[in-house]
Amino acid sequence: MKISQILEEKLIRYRYVFLFYLFVSVLVFIKIFFSAGSVVGSDWGFPDNTSQIKIFFETLLHSWTRIGNLFGTRQLSPVSVIFIGPIYLLSTIGIPVSLVIKLSIVSVFALGASNLNLLLRYMNLKPSSALIGGLVFILSPVFFDYSLIGWIYVLFSLSMLPLFIYLFLRAIDSGNYRYVLLAAIVFSLAIIQSQTIIWYGLTTLSLVLGYGIVTKQFWRSLKYAFVLSVSFLALNFYWLPALILLPDQSAAGGEIVKSSISLGTSFRLSALNILRIWGSLYNYQFENSYPKVFEPLSFVVPIIGLSCIFFVKKFKRHISYLLLIFLIPALFYFIDRQVISGLPFANLIRDVARFSVLSTFALSAMIAITIDQLQAIRGSIHRWLFPLIFLVLFFNAYPFWSGNLFALPKSGFDFRLRTKVWPTEYEDLNQKLQSENQEQRAIFLPLGGLVSLSDDLRYNGAFHEVPDVYSGYSPIPATISFSDRSYGASSEIVYAIDQSIKNQDIDQLEYLSALAKINFIVIRRDMDFYDWDENKKLDFENKLKSLVISGRADTYMDQGEIYAIKFKTEEKIIDAHNQLVEISSNSGKILADYLNIQFINPDQFKEIDQYRQISELFPGKNLFTHSQQNSILSSFVQGAPDGYKFLSLEKVRDIMLLQKWGYYQQNLNLKLDEGIKKDNRKSILAIERTSLPTDINGKYIVYLNEDVSNSTAYFESKSAESSKLNINGNNYTLKPAGDGLLSIEALSLSRGPNIFQVEDKNITPLLLKTKSLSTDTVIPKIIPKKLNASEYSIKIENARDDFYLNFAENFNSYWRVTKTGKLFDRELVSADNHFVSNGFGNGYKIKLSDLEKAGAGSKNFDDTFSGEIRLVFWPEKMIMPGLVITTLSLTIILYLLFTNCQEKGKVR
């Protein structure tokens, strides 16, 4: 019999089972299914309409995206197109996006139950037992909690897991490798959730060790595991090689495992909660919806499931791997998080609590086995035991059938699943922005990615916010999100923008907007801003209006809940400069010198707010780099910098005390891994052993890498009464330098720490310039053109000298300058000449001789240079060759699947 015929027979029965579970799922979600508006979880927000889904879909086709960060970020994988593609397709034929999302949610639930039902029937369980097993699966705490969070990708991966196992087992039993190929396709679909590669990998190992050994088919199962791995790699060649060969810190590292958010997800994780499958990521909502009187029943559920061991004789081969899968979360729970964070690609493991999805699957299957065997018991025990177990399972699913998925929150930390109808002017603004140059940027206020609405308590306050889909899927990049996970080089400027808004410093906001190439500022009047009351919100809006009155901006939209302005200056994302003024913060070096350790994160030093004052010292030369910040994600220009910033010793003390307090607070968490506690204690001890000078008031430090002479120090003066300055014990007098600045020239300073002390608190050090600027050169004319999200062409006309290129996109070392942008094209700018510009962007030193040598241009008759180069995000170049291999692999797999094949084993 052909494999296609076997699958067709299974599909006939499967569709009726699927329709039953689909009906149940619709009943579970009936309140939101027929509610107007888009479904919003606590941590997610799919697009609200066709134009937004189009924006989302198109960004998935490239390796660089501005969704979630208007300064751009690497998109590690385009696999989300597997899920978003069909939604986009359905929306184009007129089906509302909000309805498609609702259908997707109930379909994922029905899919999970149906797939488990299929596996259970393959185990030879009775239809009624398999039917109950599917219900237990989708009415578990994991499905409840992930629905509220809105992580439908996780639920989809979990729902496909039983089908993956079914196909792998069938391959072992029948000796038909084609089932493994089908399992690889399922694996590749489920990969839309990044942790799938870990979950399914460990599940495969459990099947090989459990099912393979018990059935005495270990070598066949091992062989098929290898076939599965090769097939999965081939099917995912369009994104995996780029991730492996061009690793990204956010995936290859392990810092997310130890982040405060990941630690917080384990707050309710305990051995008992893992046992009763209450160990999901954020289990607060399920626990809060579960009546205390029913709580003993939650411990009965795992007892029912584990009772399957009494029937091990009949189900030994299945119970063997189910127990292994069930114990995987416990394994990760007892492994020190410090150890996990040291593993390659540990960030894919991420939150240990997420592994409860595996125990949920295993326990649901084991419960079905127990129920199946209890039905076979004859006598009076059958009459009361089976109904009693059914009641226990029914009451255990109380949060579902009671409607608590959508009920009002019971506490400040509580949230529920909701729908939201957005104001029409939100879409009016997005429609208007579609006609604008897409290479601009906008700030949608409030910042953060999650927003609190003033006019509806369901969406108001901490933990009740909704995802800001209208900034997230704006035609012009508009989202600035916040997290304890780094956003790369742009983290610093994001903080500065946030502070300027919080302080209502419109001048600083205007300056930072020009620095970051931000063209629009948009206020949503129906949203909360920080802790501002209505008067303070109105004050800020009036300050924005003052920019319009002064002629620096135009009113872009003033309609209902929207007030938007557009700055009159329209600076391009890519521009050229004739000189580079390089400023080193040297903060990390100073602290490392004091503490003799490297645990202080340079991102804690928020010094970009001084850029404006520093730029006034060098008119027209406002391209800066920091050689000590973003040390993980960036590479920098070599050699001694032109200038250094000052760091207050009072600030050093405050940071040290804050860091020490943070370590103490973290160690108070009884569930914190011992390895992290040990590292924290070492850091606390290092801080306590550190001795700063006794008198630190008014003292600043500059750490130099070499002796310098003839340097100049600049200070900002705010009505200073004294101009006295002490440097390394020697007294000096500051002189006026114009525009509120003071300076002292011809300074000779030594290598290492140099202490500056000012007597007047109205005097603030700005910059120590250690060598003179180079002679002015002519800025060449460049014409940049965006080819796609990951590639730009740049025409250079009549360049006379080497120059600096500023690309105002989040720094990433994989943004490379080449001649044609082809895969094997040689870089024209070395890593040494690719650096962080303006504290967040990509700066390049362009040498005309290198361009001419590579044939990227030529000299004109007047000895100037003209040519064309490409600015390319390099992981993008690996997509197309990989896609060819993926397409070819899929074609071969489909051919093999639909050729004649007889099963060697028994067909069930």
Describe this structure in words.
The protein has 908 residues and is α+β, with helices and mostly antiparallel strands. The protein folds into 4 domains: 3-11 and 137-406, no CATH class; 418-567, Rossmann fold (3-Layer(aba) Sandwich); 579-769, no CATH class; 781-874, no CATH class. Helices cover 45% and strands 16% of the residues. The chain has 33 helices and 30 strands. A 6-stranded mixed sheet has the order 12-13-22-16-20-19, with no helix packed on it. Strands 14-15-21-17-18 form a 5-stranded antiparallel sheet. A hairpin with a 2-residue loop joins strand 23 and strand 24 (791-799). It is globular, with a radius of gyration of 31 Å. 45% of the residues are buried.
